[in-house]
Amino acid sequence: MILVIAEKPSVAQSIAKVLGATSRKDGYMEGGNYIVSWCFGHLVELADASSYDERYAKWRYDDLPIVPENWMFEVTKDKAQQFKVLSALMKDKRVTELVCATDAGREGELIFRLVYDKAGCVKPFKRLWISSLEDSAIREGFNHLRDGKEYDRLYEAALSRSKADWIVGINGTRLFTTLYHKKLVVGRVQTPTLAMLVERDGKISTFHKKKYFNVHVGKGDLTADLEKVKTEEEAKKIAAACEKKQAVVSSLKRETKTVNPPKLYDLTTLQREANRYYGFTAQQTLDLVQTLYEKKLLTYPRTDSQFITDDMEDTARQVISIVCRQLPLFSGVSVTPDTARVTDNSKVTDHHAILPTVQLEKQDVSALPQSEQKILNLVGMRLLCATGEKHTYAETQISLSCEGYEFKTKGKTVVQNGWKAIEELFKASLKAKEKDDPVKSLPEVHEGDMLDGVSASVTERFTTPPKQYTDVIFCERKEWIGIEERSSA
């Protein structure tokens, strides 16, 4: 028989259904040639320092650093029963082969391997690597199982990360706690994260706003600006010099510009947009996407790719049609998707971009919690936008010369709305309307035109401090400097 081990019970149930393992037992399911069981996240973890030497039970400066030569692992106490189930199944003489069906990522690999090693199992195993829990995806995955050894380096990377966390956390926390006689927690990720917050707060607290002035001249519908004049005296001098005087259109430049559709969502961009539109924290968004993944309505969440592979184009087109039928916000929308725009095999590593699944066709979306509906609308909107037409507009830049001073303005006119029509439809549905930069159209003028008797005015402005980190901007910066663990469980 083949023992399949998933990361959690809900995923195991989805797999068991496809494999026909419908007979429920204590801690697993069985049927046909398969036994399907599960972990509860990490069943096995690195042992505490006191497991290496009893003296480490007390925190002492002189014992540092603690760096194990031979690493020890222990079963998580509150999950010991499920480990016993898995260990017994691995030793079952009926089982000749295993399938690692934990999440297809670094942390999922570690979860399985630590249980496998701790149980002393040496039976061969294969790897199930899928990006969706749809029945069709599971069947396809089992038809193309990979040799487990192909993922040895992924496991080693996860194990190295875990050991690094242990070394930094154990030693750093004990060091600063013993030095300052107060528990001070240090972590490989949390400490540089804290440093980023302190740095930003320092810049905000020491910021001193500075005043500056903008001078405006114009006539009728045409107004141009001279920005960031340092003193009020100078600004008023410029305004007085130009008041009621003649201005000339010294330069006029027109050009057609395009804005390409956005890319599909990876996890970070989805978290950023969910925060922007709904106020969800990064963790809330991850939890919602994970739930929708387990409900088979979204593909795998912990991805860093914003593209799909060429073998997915037909499915993507099918999903686009489903989105337009199933999500009320987009019902009646007519699109001609260009899926080639989001297809690039070289930019897809472990998992493709986050997409709705064809299972959405069978889902009564109105029956889902509002928060899950919001995420589906967001992912659906991005899929339609990413495969839509370019947004095209005509931009006009005008310079006015008056009394030796140059004033500038610019405006634009939409030529073809393209993908932005979908985005605008989405934004219009929000209770707190998302404001775009206003589209400023300019009157028809020509280079060399004279404007007699222009009016002039001055407005006061202030420089602004750095912004406080929002949850998602913070995630983006952590990812950029390399401390964000996007694929960790």
From TrEMBL:
<dbReference type="InterPro" id="IPR023405">
    <property type="entry name" value="Topo_IA_core_domain"/>
</dbReference>
<dbReference type="Pfam" id="PF01131">
    <property type="entry name" value="Topoisom_bac"/>
</dbReference>
<dbReference type="InterPro" id="IPR013497">
    <property type="entry name" value="Topo_IA_cen"/>
</dbReference>
<dbReference type="InterPro" id="IPR013825">
    <property type="entry name" value="Topo_IA_cen_sub2"/>
</dbReference>
<dbReference type="InterPro" id="IPR023406">
    <property type="entry name" value="Topo_IA_AS"/>
</dbReference>
<keyword id="KW-0238">DNA-binding</keyword>
<feature type="domain" description="Topo IA-type catalytic">
    <location>
        <begin position="151"/>
        <end position="489"/>
    </location>
</feature>
<dbReference type="InterPro" id="IPR013826">
    <property type="entry name" value="Topo_IA_cen_sub3"/>
</dbReference>
<dbReference type="GO" id="GO:0006265">
    <property type="term" value="P:DNA topological change"/>
</dbReference>
<dbReference type="InterPro" id="IPR000380">
    <property type="entry name" value="Topo_IA"/>
</dbReference>
<protein>
    <recommendedName>
        <fullName>DNA topoisomerase</fullName>
        <ecNumber>5.6.2.1</ecNumber>
    </recommendedName>
</protein>
<dbReference type="GO" id="GO:0006281">
    <property type="term" value="P:DNA repair"/>
</dbReference>
<keyword id="KW-0799">Topoisomerase</keyword>
<dbReference type="GO" id="GO:0003677">
    <property type="term" value="F:DNA binding"/>
</dbReference>
<dbReference type="GO" id="GO:0043597">
    <property type="term" value="C:cytoplasmic replication fork"/>
</dbReference>
<comment type="similarity">
    <text>Belongs to the type IA topoisomerase family.</text>
</comment>
<dbReference type="GO" id="GO:0006310">
    <property type="term" value="P:DNA recombination"/>
</dbReference>
<dbReference type="InterPro" id="IPR034144">
    <property type="entry name" value="TOPRIM_TopoIII"/>
</dbReference>
<dbReference type="InterPro" id="IPR013824">
    <property type="entry name" value="Topo_IA_cen_sub1"/>
</dbReference>
<dbReference type="GO" id="GO:0003917">
    <property type="term" value="F:DNA topoisomerase type I (single strand cut, ATP-independent) activity"/>
</dbReference>
<dbReference type="InterPro" id="IPR003602">
    <property type="entry name" value="Topo_IA_DNA-bd_dom"/>
</dbReference>
<dbReference type="InterPro" id="IPR006171">
    <property type="entry name" value="TOPRIM_dom"/>
</dbReference>
<dbReference type="InterPro" id="IPR003601">
    <property type="entry name" value="Topo_IA_2"/>
</dbReference>
<dbReference type="Pfam" id="PF01751">
    <property type="entry name" value="Toprim"/>
</dbReference>
<keyword id="KW-0413">Isomerase</keyword>
<feature type="domain" description="Toprim">
    <location>
        <begin position="1"/>
        <end position="134"/>
    </location>
</feature>
